[in-house]
Design goal:
Order of helices and strands: HHEEEHEHHHEEEEHEEEEHEEEHEHEH
Number of strands: 17
Structural class: alpha+beta
Number of helices: 11
Radius of gyration: 22 Å
Low-confidence stretches: none
Amino acid sequence: MPLDHQRFLDSLHHLRSFGASGVGKGVVRPAFSAADIDARAWLADQLRACGLTVHVDPAGSVFGLAEGKSLLLGSHTDSQPEGGWLDGALGVMAALEIAKARFEDGLAPVSVVSFQDEEGRFGVTTGSSLWSGTLDLVSADTLTDQSGVAFAEARALMEGKSAEFVDPARFSGFIEMHIEQGPVMDGTADVVGVVSDIVGIRDMKITFEGQQNHAGTTPMALRRDAFQALSGFNTLLNERLRNVVTPQTVWTIGHVSLHPNASSIVPSKVTFSMQWRDGDADRLARMEAVIRETANEIAQIHEMKLSYGPLLGLEPVAMDKHLRTALQESADEHAQDRWRTMPSGALHDATNVSALIPAAMLFVPSINGISHAFEEDTDESDLVTGLDVLAGAVAHLV
């Protein structure tokens, strides 16, 4: 297969121009932003140029479809509010280069996908969740981002959408190439990771509501301060989870909305995100119980009203053995003894896709283990090696 390594890198850099932050290689390309929509239009043109039929599904995910049954490659092209140039984009541009090379050489084609809203502006891997059926469109349309924009409103911005989702039966499997987004391979000789399994995730919003009052005249003992409730919750939760979790378990309060958010007012309300991840579904459930019990206790102590948003999440999944074997054989050829088998601590579209068709993943290192930040980067020689390993696996499978 006549891969063009420079063309592949040029495509990655061109995609970066859509929403370039001006800080290093950083990207600001959230789902359904103008930059995201423009990037998807450019991708659609690239897919047509290598003989694929473009299909934009109701969620805004962009597919380049081959004739007949085919292997599906890809990831996502939306970014975090402050994101890097490779997260998701790498998998789509690698898929595009393989599609181009096979088209030019007259080989059996592959299909390509860029799922929409993998980064969770509205939910958790929204586009692939809708495609897999773990989320329905009616429910998704009511989801809102942190500014109150509804998913229905945002997806209406994308033109040319079909009313139908792509039939998964037309695909033999799915492989997603991605940066590791962690520190495991960085600093070692390894340049490729073949993913064994992906952790599960749970995500929900929690709200404490107390009493707004004057910050200068309200005695501390009489306050129903929502922020103090959040602070107490965080401290108590960390203590209580110690006997439940493993060193690989993570949990995060990543977004906090305080009302009225003024320096001279005792805050009456706080809504915050609560997210936790682990490779064991039972442990995820035990963590949920601890989180709810702790929130309830804190609400009573601080005289707060307590409410929850919907619980979103995905189950831990193992990658398909047949596809993994193809990746491992290709890694032996192109990376020799510089690759490893490893789990993914980050969530990916492959989790949802695995419910429909066999799925597998391939990692390349992240410099200093940094991702979801403007500093995110990978040595370009490692990007090329990852492309070669992916293409070699495709050659084994197609």
